[in-house]
């Protein structure tokens, strides 16, 4: 095969990768972009999740102070968890259980502990993530087939990146001489646009396609009960480690702030940002947060009656393989370093969406012709069978 | 070859050629179709639609009681550890402080140590995953064990047929093995 026809073939492969499913790819890209900044969108739309300072010198409350404030405002509600979001302009997310049986996320002001509102039944964040992540197909047994459908897109995306760079001769020159011809017609413009966006998003497309493919591998491993996790399975607290007390008087537990202190001593560098309270009398209290490596969390599970750490899962416990696999999700979602990283991810998500669109526009203007020409060349070699096919289609019409 | 181009395509074929790469727009029907189910599930998980899909009734356990509900009104779901049936429960208003732990088991437990699976959650809403062996007889009883903070124990039961008719239907379908 000549060099020219080989690059032609690469070009055709590149053109055909996304074309038959362009709309699906586009919606997955757009919903992914929305999901990255979904928390920020809710912040704009719903004042309940904003962390408004009552005064300039207000200090954030400790978790125990927040629980005490909630106890004053809503004495019947039971706090199940407290999460301090990465960005300080967000209210605390508190898991609350109400006497009517609802378990909802509530937004608590980090400075006063006041419950500013509960998450509405339409949860925009969860909805965009579910639409992007598994196309809303329910999880019944194992991973949903929607998850497979979406994560499979990682492969053509990776192939698009590779074939795109192969057909774009000396693409690195595009960094030095960016070209975007506006006055030469739509085909030239969209071609330049596609190439320009493409080279500047090489890193992003690589990250998204590789991490997306990881989600596919994760589902395959999960559905076949293959685990690569070093995370220990935590048994319930032994019966003799839970004190007996007088009838109707729950055994006293250590304060949450005390538990955080114990966990921070045990895990150097821990920035404790979440606490999951025990799920029953024999269940542990979980404290966790990030450490020096922003893409992973560290946790400690404590006996809530005496503060003894039963199990901890630290960065140093992870295998090198887990450092790679556990980093995949945050790298995909961009939620590991605050607002700016999210905005960068959202921007390139938008660029990627535009690449799907511009690719489609280029195809409608050029590839249709290229394919027709390629078929013509092929037909020259095998004139008879094609002519025969044409005759049979004549019969049908 | 020139003939191929010269042949005027049928309207059907022209339509196909024009729209074949846009058929994938129909993939959007998948999330649209699953949307009602998605929102129903979201409401079920939040507890907006009650304890579970079907409330089985009250179970008296000594001086205490609980409301038992099937999380989903269906038979046990397959699990690597064997078929599992998910139940939700809420403790009675005045026993929330009294009860240290609640357990669920098919058949009467001999002791507190064999009381079955423990409920996780708050007194207002807690859940347990109950293993259901395929050989479970259709007239089996579901036993609830509650433990007080001082170690006292109380038991109560409800027929499995009342707690979960769907599980009985599932057992009958498995063909109850002697």
UniProtKB/TrEMBL annotation, chain A:
Domain PepSY, chain residue ranges per copy: 60-117
KW Transmembrane (keyword) present: yes
InterPro entries: PepSY, PepSY-ass_TM
Pfam family, one: PepSY
Transmembrane intervals: 12-37, 145-168, 197-217, 339-363
The keyword Transcription appears for this protein: no
Domain of life: Bacteria
Keywords recorded for this protein, A-Z: Membrane, Transmembrane, Transmembrane helix
UniProt-recorded name of the protein: Peptidase
Organism placement in taxonomy: Bacteria, Pseudomonadati, Pseudomonadota, Gammaproteobacteria, Pseudomonadales
Automatic annotation (TrEMBL), chain B:
Organism this protein belongs to: Pseudomonas trivialis
InterPro entries in UniProt: UCP029505
Transmembrane segments: 21-39
Domain of life: Bacteria
Protein name stated in the entry: Thiamine pyrophosphate-binding protein
Alphabetic keyword roster: Membrane, Transmembrane, Transmembrane helix
């Amino acid at each position: 095969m000549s060099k020219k026809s080989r690059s032609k073939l690469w070009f055709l492969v590149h053109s055909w990768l996304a074309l038959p499913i362009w709309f699906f790819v586009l919606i997955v890209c757009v919903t992914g972009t929305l999901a990255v900044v979904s928390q920020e969108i809710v912040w704009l739309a719903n004042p309940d999740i904003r962390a408004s300072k009552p005064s300039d010198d207000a200090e954030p409350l400790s978790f125990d102070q927040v629980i005490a404030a909630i106890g004053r405002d809503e004495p019947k509600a039971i706090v199940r968890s407290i999460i301090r979001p990465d960005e300080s302009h967000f209210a605390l997310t508190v898991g609350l259980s109400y006497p009517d049986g609802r378990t909802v996320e509530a937004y608590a002001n980090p400075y006063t502990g006041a419950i500013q509102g509960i998450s509405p039944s339409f949860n925009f964040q969860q909805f965009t993530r579910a639409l992007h992540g598994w196309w809303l197909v329910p999880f019944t047994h194992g991973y949903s087939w929607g998850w497979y459908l979406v994560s499979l897109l990682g492969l053509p995306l990776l192939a698009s990146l590779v074939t795109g760079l192969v057909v774009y001769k000396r693409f690195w020159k595009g960094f030095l001489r960016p070209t975007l011809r506006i006055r030469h017609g739509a085909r030239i413009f969209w071609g330049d646009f596609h190439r320009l966006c493409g080279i500047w998003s090489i890193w992003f497309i690589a990250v998204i396609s590789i991490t997306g493919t990881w989600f596919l591998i994760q589902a395959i491993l999960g559905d076949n009960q293959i685990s690569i996790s070093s995370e220990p399975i935590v048994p319930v607290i032994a019966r003799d480690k839970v004190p007996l007390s007088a009838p109707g008087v729950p055994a006293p537990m250590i304060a949450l702030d005390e538990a955080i202190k114990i966990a921070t001593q045990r895990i150097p560098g821990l920035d404790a940002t979440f606490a999951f309270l025990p799920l029953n009398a024999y269940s542990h209290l979980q404290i966790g947060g990030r450490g020096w490596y922003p893409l992973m969390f560290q946790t400690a599970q404590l006996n809530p009656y005496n503060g003894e750490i039963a199990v901890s899962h630290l960065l140093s416990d992870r295998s090198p393989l887990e450092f790679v696999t556990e980093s995949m999700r945050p790298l995909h979602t961009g939620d590991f370093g605050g607002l700016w990283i999210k905005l960068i991810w959202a921007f390139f998500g938008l660029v990627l969406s535009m690449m799907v669109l511009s690719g489609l526009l280029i195809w409608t203007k050029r590839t249709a012709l290229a394919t027709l020409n390629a078929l013509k060349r092929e037909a020259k070699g095998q004139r008879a069978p094609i002519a025969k096919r044409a005759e049979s289609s004549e019969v049908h019409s | 070859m020139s003939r191929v181009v010269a042949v005027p395509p049928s309207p059907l074929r022209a339509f196909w050629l024009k729209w074949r790469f846009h058929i994938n727009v129909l993939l959007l029907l998948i999330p649209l179709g699953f949307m009602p189910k998605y929102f129903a599930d979201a409401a079920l998980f939040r507890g907006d639609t009650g304890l579970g899909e079907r409330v089985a009734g009250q179970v008296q356990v000594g001086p205490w009681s609980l409301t038992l509900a099937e999380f989903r009104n269906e038979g046990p779901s397959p699990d690597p550890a064997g078929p599992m049936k998910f139940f939700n429960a809420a403790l009675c208003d005045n026993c929330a402080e009294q009860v240290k732990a609640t357990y669920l088991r098919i058949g009467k437990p001999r002791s507190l140590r064999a009381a079955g699976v423990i409920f996780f959650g708050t007194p207002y809403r807690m859940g347990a995953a109950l293993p259901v062996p395929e050989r479970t007889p259709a007239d089996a009883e579901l036993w609830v064990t509650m433990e007080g903070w001082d170690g006292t124990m109380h038991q109560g039961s409800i027929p499995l047929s009342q707690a979960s008719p769907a599980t009985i239907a599932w057992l009958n379908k498995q063909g109850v093995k002697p």
